[in-house]
Amino acid sequence: MQGTRNYNSKLSSWREKAKKKSKEIAAFKKRMKELIFSRDNWKEKYHAKNKENKRLKVIIEQLKKGSDKELKNEKKPKHHSYSLQIILLCIWMRQQGNCSLRSCASTLKIMALVLGLDLKFPSRNTIQNWEKKLGYSRIHRQGKAAEKWVIILDESISIGQQKLLLILGVELTKYDFGKALCFEDTTVLYLGIGKSWTGELISKQIKKIKSNGFNIEYGVSDGGTNLIKSLKMSDISLIQDCTHVIGNLLKKQYVSNEEFITFSKQCGVFKRQIMLGKDALLMPPSQRVKGRFLNLQPLSSWAYKMLLLLAQKNSKLSKEQQEKLKWLESYRTLILEINEQCKTMNKLFKILKNEGLKKETAEKSKVILEQSKATSFFKDGVRQYLTRNLNILTGNERVICCSDIIESYFGKYKNQLEKTGAKLITDSCLAIANFNQKFKKEEIKKAMEEVKIVDLKNWRQENLPSSLLQEKRALLKSVG
Predict the structure, then answer these.
(1) Could you tell me which residues are beta bridge partners of residue 156?
(2) Range 138-241+421-477 classified under CATH 3.30.420
(3) Rounded to the nearest 5°, which phi and psi values hold at 157?
């Protein structure tokens, strides 16, 4: 009996083990099928990708050969060693890519190395001569009597006695209102350098533009006395720049306001106190020395938001940070007033800069003024600006009333000068005429062939008889 029980016990144990092993084998078989399916699937994907890679490699090789062949077969302007495509590429890199002259040459070398192109590389001086030639050609273009143009004019002050006069043109038949002016909408009609630009001198250049076939409807200016005088002498209606007019309203309000002066100084002191510490995130924005009242928005927005943070019940500011910002409470009324006027100003700019000035936009602007809590001085000043400029219009026409784009031209040129380390105006300013970024091979070919280096030298002698740097070198040379 004892043997039978032992036998049954062992048999039962073996049965359990057999069932367990059977389940494991079934699981392994199932897993094996999944792995085999997965392996086959990945093999198919690999072969497909490998086939696609081989196809793409063939296409790349064909493109390389095609690009190389295209560059070699590309026609060159007369008396030039480089193809139109290389010249066009360099000018695009300068204006669209904002590359320095040396960066253009280096980029070409990298492209040739990576794409396996057989190219000659122009020097920085060659690239600069190309863009000067194109700029010179553009400022000597001719207009058509059927076209209607608006001119935007301003002068930029540099170090020393040099001043750059820039006159931009906007062809009304091609400009679509609905967005602010950009580089592509404008054309440089005149570019000149002088020690001073009187109304008579500017008027003389405007008359030359007219003699070149440009039909000028009106002019837009920031209100400089010499600019206004030149337009009057040229018998051209003046539309005042809304940015400067509204900025000057703020200036009249606050330039002699003791509370604002104290607030502005305190912001500067507060910035210096925390800019290198753990609370630098509370730092107010920098205040511009020139055009401060045209750029009050960042400062007023910062102060207003800091007041909101202080007023929150569960403020994210620590007690220490709240203590540091408590001084703003004493300027609460002033901050709210400036912030309201800046918000109103931005709403007005959104209409006037994008849609232009006409009766409908003037009415929209007046509605904004009525709904605003800005000061009566500010509201009255804007209403007078709208009425004054509407009286110039005839019928229901719409006019451009903003000259911000000319400041963008000056800003971009100064940015390019900084890359070279130069601070003086040089003949490189001819490249300003290329900022509108509309380039065609036909135009570039014509400019390269028709404009000679001697033309650039003559232009430089007429506009830059002696720069501050040249005078300084001559002075120091006298002492060895």
Answers:
(1) 164
(2) yes
(3) -95, 135
**Both structure tokens of 165:** 């006069």
Return the closest-CA partner of residue 321 out of 369, 350, 290, 280.
280
User: What is the band of 480 on the pLDDT scale with cuts at 50, 70, 90?
Assistant: low
Tell me the helix, strand and coil percentages in the chain, rounded to 5: 65, 10, 25
Which of 474, 464, 476, 480 shows the shortest CA–CA distance to 195? Answer: 464
pLDDT at 290 over 70: no
Residue scoring higher pLDDT (377 or 111): 377
Q: If pLDDT is split at 50, 70 and 90, which confidence band does 298 have?
A: confident
Confidence of residue 152 (pLDDT cuts 50, 70, 90): very high
Unique residue bearing structure tokens 């100064």: 414
Percent of the chain with pLDDT over 90: 19
The angle subtended at Cα 327 by Cα 321 and Cα 331, nearest 5°, is: 135
> Cβ distance 193 to 466 under 8 Å?
no
Angle CA(141)–CA(144)–CA(149) in degrees, nearest 5?
Answer: 90
pLDDT at residue 220 in the model: 92
- Both tokens of 219, joined, read 């002019």
Q: Three-state DSSP class for 151?
A: strand
> What is the edge-to-edge ordering of all strands in the sheet holding 215-221?
187-194, 163-171, 148-157, 215-221, 237-240
Residue 317, CA atoms < 13 Å, CB-side half-sphere = 21
Res. 56 pLDDT band, cuts 50 70 90: confident
Q: Of 136, 113, 129, nearest to 80 (Cα)?
A: 129
DSSP 368-382: HHHH----HHHHHHH
Quickly list DSSP for 396-450: T--B----HHHHHHHHHHHHHHHHHT--S--GGGGGGGGTT----HHHHHHHHHH
- For residue 340, with 0-12 CB atoms within 10 Å meaning exposed, 13-18 middle and 19 or more buried, which class applies? middle
3 state SS of 226: helix
What does the block give as tokens for 278? 């753990």
* Mean of the per-residue pLDDT values of the chain: 84
Give residue limits of the domains in the chain.
1-73, 138-241+421-477, 247-390
Return the structure tokens found at 319. 């007690």
Q: At which residue do the structure tokens 């690999």 appear?
A: 46
Distance CA 21, CA 8 (A): 20
225-253 average pLDDT score:
90
